[in-house]
Amino acid sequence: MSTIKSVDFRIKATGKGIVNWNGSSDGILENGNTMMPKARGIDLSQREVTSKEGKEYSFNRSVEEISKNLKGKTVYISQNCIRSAIFESDAYALVGLSTEHAPLLIPSIIGLVRGYALTTDGKQPLMRKSPLYVSDFDSEATDLIFEILTVKGGREDKTGGLFGKITAGDLNYNAVASISIEEMQFIPLDGIFGRAAGDAVTPEQGEDLAKKVSEYLSALATDLGLEVSPVTRFGCYKRKGSVALGAEWGILLDDASIDVLVLEIHRRLSSLTIRRTKGFVQVDSCEADYNVGHTLRVATNVGLTTSRGETPFHCYYDAASEQDQRERDIVMQGRSEASKPSKTKDSPKKKKA
């Protein structure tokens, strides 16, 4: 039976001006910096010329050379910028957190989709790998615009008051995104494989955390207008097909839980808008493809998408057997003993002759 292994998105967006800048360069104008957009294939560095006598000279490019180099280029918005915008309200002022804050992050869109890394001195770091991939937003080929501007009081300035800016007019963007069902489905709370998202010391703590995740997903489903009852289960699970010894404790999400998260990400991508002082971009369309085979086929097969239908999501984990749990306990016990400082007896002092 076919099962859904990823949910992919084909995204089209439009914008004007530059949203994602790439710093400035002082090698274009003779005096002053030039603000650079994130773009592919631009070479505006100084020309290096070697004379017959072997002397090297550097020349700034002329305005004509710069303008010629800016034709038919691709402006892009980095995936980091896009991810920041998707989770902007959730991750606002999300600084200074440590491993003790993991129980607060796991039952949230941060813990379930965005991902995080938490550290505390002297403790094992906790991290949640994001199941969401988003590509750069690449524009279709366009002619960029080179502008030279001045600032007030420029004559007294060492740059002569000049600075440049490379910008753009109307832009059309294309991008793809993908949600890995395997990485979304299971939240590890066990450090046996070094990927724990939290530290559930006791079964009671694990059950309580799973309950909070279910409550969060139920509230999110209500906001989305879905009549579903997400269920999350805490237990000891083993990856299907794994030959590794032991298993790991964690929270397993059911199909209803995954449905809620997928639809929430689809909603966020479809309504994504980024506005900056010198440009903006907005998503015009976002098609979802519930993929049972080739991941990210939306990137190459235009128009080909599969709807959710009745196809279940692929389940990558089974409940661990008693033997798996015993092997897991043996591995963890061995690591615990190995991490203890060795006790050595002081060697007897030699008697003086």
Write the layout of secondary structure elements.
Layout: E1 6-17, E2 21-25, E3 34-37, E4 39-40, E5 47-50, E6 56-59, H1 63-69, E7 74-77, H2 79-86, H3 102-105, H4 109-114, E8 116-118, E9 126-128, E10 132-134, E11 137-139, E12 145-150, E13 162-167, E14 170-180, H5 181-185, E15 186-188, H6 203-223, E16 232-239, E17 248-253, H7 255-270, E18 273-276, E19 279-291, E20 317-319, H8 322-339
Parallel strand pairs: 3-13
Antiparallel strand pairs: 1-14, 1-19, 2-3, 4-7, 5-6, 7-11, 8-9, 10-14, 11-14, 12-13, 15-17, 16-17, 16-20, 18-19
Helix pairs in contact: 6-7
Descriptive overview:
This protein is of the alpha+beta class and 353 residues long. The chain has one domain. It is 24% helix and 30% strand. It contains 8 helices and 20 strands. The strands form 5 sheets. Strands 1, 4, 7, 10, 11, 14, 18 and 19 form an 8-stranded antiparallel β-sheet that branches. A hairpin with a 7-residue loop joins strand 8 (116-118) and strand 9. It is elongated, with a radius of gyration of 28 Å.
Number of strands: 20
Number of helices: 8
Q: What ranges have pLDDT less than 50 throughout 5 or more consecutive residues?
A: none
| Main sheet properties | 8 strands, antiparallel
Structural category? alpha+beta
Instruction: Count up the domains.
Output: 1
- How large a portion of the residues is in β-strands, by DSSP E? 25-35%
Molecular shape: elongated
- Mean pLDDT comes to 86
- Level of helix content? 10-25%
